[in-house]
Design goal:
Rossmann fold; 2 domains; six-stranded mixed sheet; 10 helices; about 35% helix
Length: about 325
């Protein structure tokens, strides 16, 4: 596939000397969904702002659809739709006029059928004649998405698009995102709802302190770095873990009725067979066995904590 967004060693240092981006390189393929994860202040919004022409990078370069985001700003920006974190809308304007005006800003001809389709997708059609000030916070965020889509962009940036949105509206939004991807739109999103990134993103990019820590397909990241926990429920209460099981690094539940064993999800040898044989040799009766896969959130937190530990050292 072709990289529609190509970032090469992009840096951004503000006048006070703060380095928001420290030489970021990232290639985003056409038609994919990539989730950009990182703690507050990691550089996510700065990167998006630089690609959208809101912030001027101090080093490196980036192109969108082959157009340089600095020297070819107009052509690059015409390919981009942006849904910012902040809700900045004219409170007394009607929804339909707000979206129609945004399309006009990009020099696009009036297309009421397209706007109707977008508003219906976002469950805004019944609110088309309502004034912005009459809408809920979730509905206002949907208007932002409609504004970003009205000029038919090929690349859509979603900066915390579901912040403050209830569960039902959030689910509808992700369905819209999936439909857009199917139509060929490239989606770059930042989100604090990590479980959503795990469910919808083709790839995950983790950024911290202005540096990209990794970029990897979501499934591969889960397989490579994910851990599984085997929980063994016992028929009888244990006071302590038997010495014969000490090599397995087991955790005994507070009530003494279960043991937990953590292992690498992608490992060739999990040690489960030997563990169960050792438990049987001890004469311990089992009530149940179940496994749990570590979540992307746990992997993400682990990556950030590892980097913080390295910096401190």
């Amino acid at each position: 596939m072709t990289a529609i967004v190509d970032v090469q060693n992009m840096g951004k240092v503000y006048d006070g000397g703060f380095t928001a981006l420290g030489g970021v390189s990232l290639q985003i393929e056409e038609g994919e969904i990539i989730a950009l994860l990182g703690p507050n202040g990691a550089g996510k919004t700065t990167l998006i702002s630089a690609l959208c022409g809101i912030v001027t990078p101090t080093s490196g370069r980036a192109t969108v659809g082959g157009h340089d985001v600095v020297t070819g700003y107009r052509k690059a920006r015409a390919m981009i739709g942006l849904v910012p974190q902040e809700i900045a809308l004219e409170p007394f304007e009607k929804v339909i006029n707000t979206v129609r005006f945004s399309r006009g800003l990009f020099g696009k001809r009036r297309d009421d059928k397209l706007l109707e389709k977008i508003l219906r997708q976002l469950s805004l059609w019944d609110k088309r004649n309502a004034r912005i000030r009459e809408l809920s916070g979730g509905m206002k965020r949907r208007v932002l998405i409609a504004k970003a889509l009205c000029h038919e962009p090929r690349v859509l940036f979603l900066d915390e698009p579901t912040a403050g949105v209830d569960v039902e509206l959030r689910r509808d939004m992700w369905q819209v995102v999936e439909d857009l991807r199917k139509s060929g739109v490239t989606i770059i999103l930042t989100t604090h709802y990590i479980e959503e990134a795990e469910a919808i993103a083709d790839r995950i990019a983790v950024i911290n302190k202005g540096q990209i820590l990794l970029v990897e397909p979501t499934a591969d990241l889960m397989a490579r770095m994910g851990q599984k926990t085997l929980r063994i429920d016992l028929m009888e209460r244990l006071e302590t873990i038997p010495k014969a099981l000490a090599d397995y690094d087991l955790a005994l539940a507070v009530d003494g009725m279960s043991l937990s064993y953590t292992y690498e999800a992608g490992g060739e040898r999990t040690g489960i067979t030997r563990l169960l044989q050792a438990i049987a040799a001890e004469g311990m009766a089992l009530r149940d066995i179940q496994t749990n896969q570590s979540s992307l959130e746990e992997i993400f937190v682990g990556l950030i904590q590892d980097e913080t530990t390295e910096d401190a050292a």
